[in-house]
């Protein structure tokens, strides 16, 4: 693995997450809501729209095998990345003072970049011609366990958001 390999991974992850983040900022700016969970939903919709375009491009290039693999990895992963982004973005919008707002926005960008970068690294390593098959399998297994763990955390965070919105009388 060369530094170029890791550099490409970082650039791709950074680009994807920043594009989705900017889209979420635009969408949330035009959606008038006082409900925090709506921001999370908007982030997921934007992210899945981006994943749709990305998947079409990859499937045209790689065929049905790529389509099936991405259906079980990329689509849920993009949804998860967006839950993280939307959660912290909505905290910055609804539940933060000026000092906290910047930290939440940084987390809304940084956490998805790190997780997306890990996902990309695993895929790039596995597709490298000198990749160790056992290590490739181990990386994907580890990443799958991490994603499941993060989904559990994400669901808990969403439940907290819903409860905050209920406590504020914003939803029934």
Keywords for this structure?
mainly alpha; 6 helices; 172 residues; 0% strand
What does this entry look like structurally?
By secondary structure, the chain is mainly alpha-helical. The protein has one domain. 87% of the residues lie in helices and 0% in strands. The chain has six helices and no strands. Helix 1 packs across helix 5, helix 2 packs antiparallel against helix 3 and helix 2 runs antiparallel to helix 4. The protein starts with a helix and ends in a 5-residue tail after the last helix. The model has no long low-confidence stretch (mean pLDDT 79).
Radius of gyration: 17 Å
> Which term fits the overall shape?
elongated
- N-to-C span: 53 Å
- Strands, count: 0
Q: What's the SSE pattern?
A: HHHHHH
Rounded mean pLDDT is 79
User: In percent, how helical is the residue content?
Assistant: over 70%
What count of helical segments does DSSP give?
6
Residue stretches low in confidence (pLDDT < 50, at least 5 long) are none
Please, how many domains?
1
Sketch the major β-sheet. none
Q: Beta-sheet strand percentage?
A: under 5%
Structural class: mainly alpha
């Amino acid at each position: 693995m060369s530094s170029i390999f890791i550099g490409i991974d970082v650039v791709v992850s950074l680009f994807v997450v920043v594009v989705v983040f900017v889209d979420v900022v635009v969408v949330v700016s035009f959606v008038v809501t006082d409900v925090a969970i709506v921001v999370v939903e908007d982030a997921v919709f934007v992210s899945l729209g981006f994943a749709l375009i990305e998947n079409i491009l990859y499937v045209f290039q790689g065929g049905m095998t790529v389509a099936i693999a991405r259906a079980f990895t990329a689509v849920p992963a993009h949804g998860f990345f967006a839950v993280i982004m939307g959660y912290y973005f909505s905290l910055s919008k609804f539940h933060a003072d000026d000092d906290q707002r910047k930290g939440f926005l940084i987390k809304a960008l940084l956490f998805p970049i790190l997780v997306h970068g890990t996902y990309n690294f695993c895929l790039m390593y596995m597709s490298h011609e000198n990749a160790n098959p056992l290590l490739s399998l181990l990386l994907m297994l580890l990443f799958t366990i991490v994603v499941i763990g993060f989904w559990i955390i994400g669901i808990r965070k969403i439940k907290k958001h819903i409860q905050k919105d209920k406590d504020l009388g914003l939803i029934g």
